[in-house]
Amino acid sequence: MGRNKLSNEEKTRVLTLLKEGASVIRVAAEVNVTRMAIYNLKKAVESLPPGTVPPRKPGSGAPKKTSRTDKIMRREVLNDPAITAAELKKNHPALLGNVSVRTIQHRLQISLKLPTRRAAKKPLLTEAMKKKRLSFCKRYRQWTPEQWKQSCSVMKALLDWLGWLQRQCAVQVMCHGTTQNIP
């Protein structure tokens, strides 16, 4: 059993096959639609001038409320993935004023294929991090600005040297036909 909807290309193909003398059963099998769809197409063509394809019937339901604003919503979400549907509605009252937040969520998730994301709820600093920072501050409380400058320049030189050393020591070795990096 086939489907009963035909695209314009399929309608043209069906009409060509029928004009060549093919049977309705063969045409329906070839296009993979129901025989009733072919009969309905033949009936619709009878009232039209020769060589024209019947236009598609208008679909049911109301038009989409956000069809004009999809590009704007997509751009906003790609610029700021953490933005919520309520914030989108608040930022664009002229475009999304009569659209519900749930509709905006559906358009973003289903139609525009943008996944939902929510940041993990976690403390900015854990207790262990706070203790380490406090002990660091107590240890170096007496340092002068000159000591800090010297310490920073030494650390930068050390990090640069470690990066250079790591690049020099990354030797590629062939081992059983595969290449491995050995630090």
TrEMBL record:
This is Transposase Tc1-like domain-containing protein. Residues 47-69 are annotated as: Disordered. InterPro entries: Homeodomain-like_sf (IPR009057), RNaseH_sf (IPR036397), Transposase_Tc1-like (IPR002492). One of its GO terms (biological process) is DNA transposition. It comes from Chionoecetes opilio (Atlantic snow crab). It holds the Pfam family HTH_Tnp_Tc3_2. Residues 74-141 form the Transposase Tc1-like domain. One of its GO terms (cellular component) is nucleus. It is found in: Nucleus. One of its GO terms (molecular function) is DNA binding.
